[in-house]
Amino acid sequence: MTTDGTAVSTGRGILGYGAYLPYRRLDRKTIAAVAGTGGGRGTRTVASFDEDTTTLGVEAARNTLRATPGADPRALLFATVAPAYTDRTNATAIHAALRLDGSVPAMDAGGSVRSAAGLLRLALTGADSALVVGADIRVGLPGSPDEAAGGDGASALLVGGPADGPVLAEYLGGAAATAEFVDRWRTPGDVRSKLWEEKFGENNYLAAGRRAWTDALKATGLTADGVDHAVVAGLHGRAVAGLGRRLGLREGVLGDDLSGTVGNTGAAHPGLLLAATLEAAAPGAVIALVVLSDGADVFLFRAGEALAAYRPTRTVTEQIAGGAPLPYGKYLAWRGLLPVEPPRRPEPARTSSSAAVRSVDWKYGFVGARDRESGAVHLPPQRVSMTGGNLDDMEPVPTADVLGTVKTFTVDRMAYSPSPPVVFAVVDFDNGGRLPIELTDMDASEVAIGDRVEPTFRRLGTADGIHNYFWKARPVRTARAAEEA
């Protein structure tokens, strides 16, 4: 890196990409009827009651690694503004769910949207391959602009050099402009962000954005006319739109910021917009990613020949089209903004940390066991096979990417849940395993015997501040998963 903060091309770049958008959508038109104000046009994504930024990050990372054969990240870097924990690393749960080797470090960077851009810059200018994950759940007070403009989601970018695999988009260089001005702030523990006068923030962001853009073009020897795709991410909507008009781009180059269909996903948004852009780009295209947060960051890439053969597990376009509506009242209840009558059942007990450590591969990685003698698959893993045989004569069976079929199910309206009723199903997985498992991302009336489902990493509940992560199953809805089914 040069003394002015610009990056020098080393052949490194994007080896894989993926995104995750929750299944539920909030229609902004429904907000004002309840809150008395706010709302607007379009929809925003909403994380389910059993999702947090950790589970969102797991799903985005899984989508990236499944689409990138031979991926072997040597670091996991996680950015979020809404961590599930403080005082401990959230990336370690993602690490465990992905079943990465213990030698791979997992680290958090949080507190600001710019942390995502910072981790991406570190990965692009580093030496080892790294999986950069960003996730966010954006919340505002009922009827506020932040509530309507926000969105929930995650993105993941696998970064490395030619030795790590085919480079889909080479990093040509970039620039940063850091500026200290308080236009948006939130104290720890507060549910809402506060904002200074809008024009103040816009002026400062435009100045920082223009400087970073000019420096990035100078560092790479490019001109604005040479850019084929550009996206601008940032929480300040007016600044994002205003800078886009001032970059000197050709008509049609500036891409959709997804504000009308997804909303602004905060720390996840730079990776999400880059993933959506890579899906549409052709080899040879020059791509610009601009991030406005506490200044500005600019990243310039050139799409490689390998991009034409890359097949994302779930495209951003696919996921945007695949959502289902969520009533505004349920959204408020899920976010804890509308107190509702809890289930009249005892709350779950605190998860045992010592027990969780003894079953990390099962609890986080969803790894069963197969009896070497009979081939019987056990979910959860057992020491002795249901068919008999020798003690501890088992081999691991990863099941997180295995589809299954609902054999029978029950709708439980008495079990404790923040969003009753609970649907439990007995699922036969295609690898031979069978497991009673909770279903999610569906309504109880939709379930039928014979449905095809896939595992998804979720939060079962929280007690005494400890989150109980495990796997549920959701209906197979995407085109690629349907083909596999």
Automatic annotation (TrEMBL):
It holds the Pfam family OB_ChsH2_C. One of its GO terms (molecular function) is acyltransferase activity, transferring groups other than amino-acyl groups. Gene3D superfamilies: 3.40.47.10. Residues 404-458 form the ChsH2 C-terminal OB-fold domain. InterPro entries: ChsH2_C (IPR002878), NA-bd_OB-fold (IPR012340), Thiolase-like (IPR016039). This is ChsH2 C-terminal OB-fold domain-containing protein.
